[in-house]
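Please complete every field before forwarding. Incomplete forms are returned to the sender.

SECTION A: IDENTIFIERS
Entry label: holo-263
Bound molecule: calcium ion
Molecule representation: SMILES string

SECTION B: INPUTS
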Amino acid sequence: MQDLTIDLFGGPSPQLADVAVLKTTGLITTVATIGRENLAYLLTVSNAGPHIAEGAWLVDRLPPTGTAVFASSDQGAYDATTQRVKAQLGNMGVGESLDVHVAVTPIGGPMITNWAEVGSAVIDPLPANNTSHVVSVAIPALDTDRDGIPDWWTQDQFGRPTNALPNDDEDHDLITTLNEYRMLSSPHQANLPFRIEEIGCVHGGLVTFETKVGRTYEVQFKSNLQATAWWPLGVRGGTDARVSYYDPSEDPLRFYRVIIRVP
Ligand SMILES: [Ca+2]
Ligand SMILES: [Ca+2]
Ligand SMILES: [Ca+2]
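SECTION C: PREDICTED COMPLEX
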């Protein structure tokens, strides 16, 4: 009788990580007036293990072009062409979670569906919790007297919903009340008109300006001041903070302008 020897070969067991994203479980959770507020989303990304989630990533998908929104995020970057925020979150330990904030400037409406998806470089044993979505409502602003200035701004500034006197210039700063509304500046206190605060030029251009929630800002350029056409560089959503837009071109001569878009 001979001994029978069987060799068993096997690799290491696969690395598993159950990553998940939670936006909300409800349906309609966020409502914003177009031109007045941003929609604010909190995306909580977590890893329930049992192993490290290597190369974790997050994609936040906004409605297709046409519903027209603009997003900004504290993680990763927004690509206006694909209407997505993409973020590389690195390696997430077991039990680790992190929050990503996404602000969306609604331009159209009324329903804005925002999908988030997470994943990592390792196998996910529970893919069902890798997506989460919220349906928000963007309400068009009422303009009862149709003077181009919505009721909410007239109410805020004058204590009545209508009759803002668009061509008036109460504070004598040469900015009409209609343009004060477009810039979201005070009609009662003299303001400097909206302007580019600073242009930097190290390995490209850096265009800096103040922004307001509810407005989007289109940065344009041309290389020859005599040329009639301005070319788009990109769009920024307003955040009530100063933003800088980077132009990677090293053209020796560039002229910039910023157009405020009022939804
Ligand atoms: Ca999962
Ligand atoms: Ca009005
Ligand atoms: Ca004025």
